[in-house]
Amino acid sequence: FTRAGGPSVTCSTHTNHIRLERLNPGDEYDIQVRMRCGNRWTNYSPHFVFNTPICDGSETVTIPNEQDTTFGVLTTNRLPFDGTANNSYTQQLYLAEEIGQAGYINYIMLNFSENSTPSAFFYCYFYLGHTDKTRFLDSNDFVDPRDLQMVYMGMVSATTGWFRIKLDTPFPYNGTDNMVLAVVNIGGSATPHAFFTAHATSEVTSIQTELPTSSFRDLNEIDSISTHRSLYRIRNHVSFELCPDPECAIDRDRKSVV
Questions:
Q1: Fewer CB in a 10 Å sphere around the end CB: N or C, the chain?
Q2: What is the pLDDT of residues 115-148, one digit of tens each?
């Protein structure tokens, strides 16, 4: 089967029922089938097309859990980006046990503190990725850029309270690994009065570096252009809206998708 505009993927079955899992939501797929008898293959069938739903029910996961009162509430202008710097790059870690389930993340929600100006605008790149890290060991211990997927690029409009960022590309969280939230802010000017809610952590869960220029191109250049680096035992309050994996079952006899 082939995701529209993407490479083909081959799967095999010894029954007349095929289940395709971990498909991208809201994508179009082309399906073709052929049979093998011994070492001989039939020609491919005519292809048919189906679209996966954007979301069939969603659940919001908030970290820390609203019932967990052990964290306390802080406000910071250093996360999810450094408001005291013109440009910055930040990573924060969230644990699999805190997220609690697999699924496609379609929205990220942050809490803009009432201690801030009533509203603010920021130009940011947001990334999500899987990692086995539970903490950052030193100021060079960033999650490798190759393990990150850019999920949003553009202007972020923050107003007091929780606000949503609709991702350009949903992130397929596997439910097993920990997750890193990375943000590049290239506003070109400091925003010291922009505060977000956060909470303390026992381990170093946030890492940050200033960027000397707003002419950011990709994460692979961070090491060569970053300047002052910081480690924090705090991280933002965050909510993730997850959709379950789209799954499609294909009946070869009926040539249908359910």
A1: C
A2: 666 677 888 999 999 999 999 999 999 999 999 9
